[in-house]
Fold MSP domain-containing protein.
Amino acid sequence: MINGLEDMIGVQPLETRVHFELNKQISCSIQVANGTDDYFAFSVSRCSLRPYNIYPSTGIVRPRSNFSIIIALQPLKKAPVEEQCKDEFTVQSTRVEECLEATDITGDIFHEGPGRVVDQVDFTVVLVVPPLSGDW
């Protein structure tokens, strides 16, 4: 039986900074850590309109293990206007049975209900945009 959120997976770092480069893919990674004896399904979603890819966006974290997720901003032809752009992401997770495969994960698994707790952790990717040349 699930008692609550006290033993859920962790996400690190909660904020990461990357330097923006025009016409180049920029990527960073986050770690999802499971310090429990349970299996967890996770799903990562973005709140930003910028074109990010998430590899993998869903998966299973085995007991007592870590899992790396790559967040990649696709090449942009134009620099963002702001000097620092904060893009928000969310990791949802819930305990699952050992026999569940990553291909079995659907959005329904992340709905709370009797005996099912869904944890949500937000993290931020900060794009650091260099000043335009000639700006002091």
Notes: The chain has one domain: 10-128. The mean pLDDT is 87.
